[in-house]
Amino acid sequence: MKSKELVAMLQDFYLLSFRGLTGIFRRPFYLKDTIEQMDYAGAGSFLIILLVSLFIGMALSLQLSAELSRLGLKMYTGKVVGISIIREIGPVTAALVFAGRVGAGMASELGSMVLGHQVDSLRVFGVDPVKKLVTPRLLSSLLMLPALTIIGDAVSLLGAYYIAVYVSHQSGSVYWTSIRDVLIYENVVAGSVKPFIFGYLIASVSCFMGLTTRGGSVGLRQTTTRAVVFSIISIIISDFVLTRILLYLLGFSV
Amino acid sequence: MILFDRVSFSYGLCPILDGLSFSIGAQERVAVLGGSGEGKTTILKLIMGLIKPDSGAILVDGEDITIKCEAHLREVRMKFSLVFQEGALFDSLSVKENVAFCLREYTKMSEEEIDGRVRELLRVVGMEHALERMPDELSGGMHRRVAIARSLAAYDPLMFLYDEPTSGLDPISADMICRLILELAGGRRGLIMVTHKVSDALKVADRFMFLKAGRVLFDGDRERLVRSTLPEIRMFMRELECLSPAE
Ligand SMILES: Nc1ncnc2c1ncn2[C@@H]1O[C@H](COP(=O)(O)OP(=O)(O)O)[C@@H](O)[C@H]1O
Ligand SMILES: [Mg+2]
User: Fold this and answer.
1) pTM of this prediction?
2) Range of the domain at B113
3) pLDDT tens-digit readout, B198-235
4) Whole-number Cα distances in Å, A158 to A55, A71, A81
5) Residue A116's closest chain B neighbor by CA?
6) Is A23 among the domain residues?
7) Residue A41 falls inside a structural domain
8) In chain A, positions 14-73, which contact chain B (CB-CB < 8 Å)?
9) Among A21, A254, B16, B50, which is most exposed with the fewest C-beta within 10 angstroms?
10) Which candidate from B50, B91, B101 shows the least CB-CB separation from A123?
11) What is the ipTM of this complex?
């Protein structure tokens, strides 16, 4: 791809994600579409997030108990597990699952609407496709991913508790005390800012890819692949950047 | 009503229209003929402002639509009703919801009123039995008829644009759609029908434009079309000659 095209594409992307976002505050409001999207993105992803979070929490707890007990530091399991889940693993896992499930879904749906001239039909009827299609998806991701992340975090911590107490034979009260110590303002803020950003990135990347689909079924394949790949890349990179910024803002020294 | 002034358009490096100029009055019934890939669909998209030309001006009621932004194009688009080649129904919505789309978008009708209006529109196109079906359960001809009903729903267009409404249909459905198109225009509203079937064009239009290599090769009435000696047009007319060798 030529650099000029790349710049034009980036510009289109920023424009789309910006207009999609400001669409939340402009009439007309497509409440029904938004609710439908929230149902698909939120309720639909609930079980898979539950499952993934549970096993990640258990695996993490198992691994850390094993490692820490060799050092004689078993009682720190709760603290380490808590910090990693709330600040890093929880938000990133939920976002990755969301990108694979919801992002791919959005991109392929919009892509097939483009190919079937349905998006042009909307424009012919004087309906703004950004408002009608992008804004509800953006809004539903902005609301649903943080909610899913919180639920996922809780389930991960429960899974980790199960392993720590019933497999690694640690004290349950020590575990919950260290979790409570972890749930301080700084960690909670850091852990809950991320899913908003991730949700925004996933929805805008996926919608952009969907709306710029070209070239039949191969084009649709490319769209879906790109939506997931670029979502994942942007999640991982922005996670690093956000961690850096949040640590700085919240006054931690590295 | 529509004026193309030296309009050029290309997809990437591939030129489609090359300095195309014509004008169409508000009450004319025009058939745009041409082979596949000659840019017929492109012309309709240009009229609706869905794509912008590389150069040249497109005037609709004296206003240049090529310099308008998306928000202002809405008013222009409301003057037309465009039915896409494939129908382009919203495939996640039932036939009823497709036809009701614009009603929900632009009017504050109650559920009963919408239901009544949708049935009325579907009756016009002879599709009232398919109210609850999904677009992917419909045949090509049914698809187009629902699309026509949908395009009539909310507002009263000044001019109808049809993109190959009869291609790929059996002769009976095609004939029915032609009659429907004529009926809807009703003598006082104009229409542009893009097609590569001369027989259907003759049923509907009284002015014929023939597109070739991005330019208007021929522009005239029925008489002149039938008499034309241009080889490209003769090739198209051969379809008719098979039917009635006497002519
Ligand atoms: N989205 C597109 N990208 C690139 N080329 C296109 C696109 N759409 C149409 N074309 C090309 O433009 C030409 C004219 O297309 P079109 O107006 O659809 O022709 P038709 O007269 O059959 O309706 C064709 O040669 C086609 O290959
Ligand atoms: Mg075409």
Assistant:
1) 0.90
2) 2-243
3) 889 999 999 999 998 888 999 999 888 888 888 888 88
4) 10, 24, 11
5) B88
6) no
7) yes
8) 28
9) A254
10) B50
11) 0.87
- The pLDDT tens digits of the residues spanning B61-80 come to 999 999 988 888 988 898 99
Question: A218 CA to chain B: closest CA distance, Å?
Answer: 19
pLDDT, tens only, B40-69? 999 999 999 999 999 999 999 999 999 988
**CA-CA distance, A29 to A63, in Å (whole number)?**
48
The reply to whether residue A118 touches residue B45, judged by beta carbons under 8 angstroms, is: no
Whether A115 has its CB under 8 Å from any CB of chain B: the answer is no
Q: Which domain does A188 fall in, by range?
A: 30-245
Work out how many domains chain B is built from and give that number: 1
- In contact, A94 and A53? CB cutoff 8 Å: yes
Using the structure block, give the residue that is written with the tokens 């001809």: B141
Q: Cα dihedral angle (A175, A178, A180, A184), rounded to 10 degrees?
A: -150
Q: Is A13 a member of any domain?
A: no
Q: How far is B219 from chain A (nearest CA, A)?
A: 27
- Give strand pairing partners of A117: none
CB B92 within 8 A of CB B59: no
Give domain status of residue A130, yes or no. yes
Q: Which CATH number characterizes residue B142's domain?
A: 3.40.50.300
Residue B208: strand, helix, or coil: strand
